[in-house]
């Protein structure tokens, strides 16, 4: 299992989702992608997309106004 991170601070929707989709395509099953963002809408949009695709996802508020989104590659 590998862990990859992408920094999406200061990036609004849909850029973080598009970057996550691109990164997930290069990952192996069981790998974890961590997306850092300072926009709560990013987590909501990525969560909706991940649930539709069947990816386990977790949103964590790391500090006031900053978020980490954890997605596990399942396919």
Automatic annotation (TrEMBL):
SUPFAM superfamilies assigned to the protein according to its UniProt record, in alphabetical order: SirA-like
Taxonomic superkingdom: Bacteria
InterPro entries to which the protein is assigned, alphabetical: TusA-like, TusA-like_sf
Coiled coil residues, start to end: none
Pfam families: TusA
Gene3D superfamilies: TusA-like domain
UPF0033 domain location: 4-73
Recorded family membership: Belongs to the sulfur carrier protein TusA family.
Designated name of the protein: Sulfurtransferase TusA family protein
Species in which this protein is naturally found: Clostridium oceanicum
